[in-house]
Amino acid sequence: MKGIVNNLFKWYLSERYGMIERFMRHPVNAQDEVWDYLRTVAEDTVFGREYNFASIKDRRSFAQQVPLQDYESLKPYIKRMMYGEKDVLWPGAVEWYSKSSGTTSDKSKFIPVSRENLKKCHIRGSWDTLTILYHNKPESQIFAGKNLIMGGSLSEFSEYPHSQIGDVSAIMMAHMPAFAKPFYAPNLEIGLMSEFEKKIELTARNALDINVTMIGGVPTWTIVLFRRILEITGKSNMLEVWPNFETYIHGGVSFLPYKEQFKRFFPSDSVRYVEIYNASEGYFAIQNDFNTDDMLLLLDNGIYYEFLPMEEWDTENPQTVLLEEVEAGKNYAIIISTNAGLWRYMPGDTVVFTSTSPYKIKVSGRTQQFINAFGEEVMVSNTDQALAAACKEFDAEVSEYTVAPYYFENDGKGRHQWLIEFEKIPVDVNAFADSLDKNLQKINSDYEAKRYLDLALTNLSIQTLPKGTFHQWMKQRGKLGGQNKIPRLANNRKYVDELLHYLNHPA
After folding, report:
1. Under 8 Å between Cβ of 267 and 280
2. How far apart are CA 406 and CA 211, in angstroms?
3. pLDDT exceeding 90 applies to what percent of the chain?
4. What is the pLDDT of residues 453-467, one digit of tens each?
């Protein structure tokens, strides 16, 4: 029976693949259609009237007439929506709000998730992920078992209970189609729990006797679950618990620092790792070729894209480029207009195009997560790659890390300070630091120039942290689980100093 059900899903997903092929063949047409639909539908909203959407004739004039937005500029509109006002940023009332991880600030952001955004962006993106998976691996048996989701929690907005807030994963779980529920674990009661550590414990115990074939979640918290399951069972790896496991779908952070740990959890070349780019604001991209590490940009699921070149980030009147104008190899901040009413919105992510036929990207970092204290322009993708190379050389494994500039020591020079929690610590940490520094120089020419003869920057330093430090620090900040992520880089010392203070004064 399970084989029959899996084959039915396989047939359905093969039919869906035609839609993906269509926007791959006609990407600009797909984006034209999305833009025209969004503008037309929102003409009579508060925002649409303020910026006279009805008068905008094409995508280029849209960029000229509507200014770039960030959360602060849209927050007054979103607040009105959260209190039940209709037709503000998007037609009708919006009931659900995704609580952002807020890695750049301790304040939470509430991103509107309209009914259309939920169904035709987030849920559709999930189906597109499975469509691509079965297209690449038609022998997959995902629906012959259970798919486990490491999601967040959902709650009422206390000031207007009709509005609900939570991680976008929780919103998706709470509104999962009835026919899909038998294929997912844990049950909703556990899956939507707000107390993360209790959720981990119950999920672990409930997953022991389930035939799990696929799991989706942020690597950080998925590892916590795996460790607990192995503690309970006494097994040496996860394949001894789930022998039919096939696929791990991950996103939110780079998988590079976690890759070796997952190989130990799943010591088999048959296990697949599929990267997705799914944020609170939308489902943007999916890895469509399992032999490469880039992702196909989804161009027909309710998101209209523009891109802000790196040289424009700090200008007074930043100018975006259209999809057809992007260049491979350049860093862009992603700009989105969505079917939830985010207009020319900057979520803060940066991408690099690896291909323009079809349009494929890698997430390179965040506009607020970089280090340029000395002109070195280091992005998260740089540090992830350098760290992976050093770990390979020294047979080391890193659980988590964060980096900040260290300003003006006695000789007037600066350096980068790394706080690293090792899963498997190198025999010689100082030699590891030298290797990390050299690899970063190979990857980033600006960093290499500033390191030349120690003229502006001296060798980076590493402080090792006890196991569990990042986990406990995130817990203290109220950011355990869901889509909360460890901040990798900062152009200031906020996170590093917080961590060092926590280390010396644990709660």
Report:
1. no
2. 49
3. 63
4. 887 789 999 999 999
Dihedral angle computed from the Cα positions of residues 411, 415, 419 and 420, in that order, rounded to the nearest 10 degrees: -120
* CA distances from residue 47 to 90, 140, 319 in whole angstroms, order as listed: 8, 45, 21
Which alpha helices (H) appear in 366-491, and where do they start and end? 380-394, 429-443, 445-451, 469-476
The CA distance from 430 to 436, in Å, is: 10
The residue-averaged pLDDT of 409-435 equals: 88
Q: Is residue 403 a contact partner of residue 418, using CB atoms and an 8 Å limit?
A: yes
Q: Do 278 and 132 share a structural domain? A: yes
pLDDT digits (tens, 9 = 90+) for 275-284: 999 989 999 9
- 3-state secondary structure at position 406: strand
Q: Tell me phi and psi for residue 274, to 5 degrees.
A: -115, 120
Same domain, 68 and 148: no
Q: What is the pLDDT of residues 142-170, one digit of tens each?
A: 988 999 988 888 889 999 999 999 888 88
The pairs formed by 308-314 with CB atoms below 8 angstroms and a separation of 24 or more are: 308/68, 308/332, 308/333, 308/334, 308/335, 308/346, 310/350, 313/367
Bridge partner residues of 379 (DSSP)? 370
Same domain, 192 and 68: no
Domain shared by 381 and 427, yes or no: yes
Q: Which residue has the higher pLDDT, 150 or 71?
A: 71
Q: Which residue has the tokens 């540090």?
A: 383
Q: Are residues 153 and 273 in the same domain?
A: yes
- The answer on 253 and 232 residing in a single domain is yes
What range defines the domain where residue 253 resides? 117-286
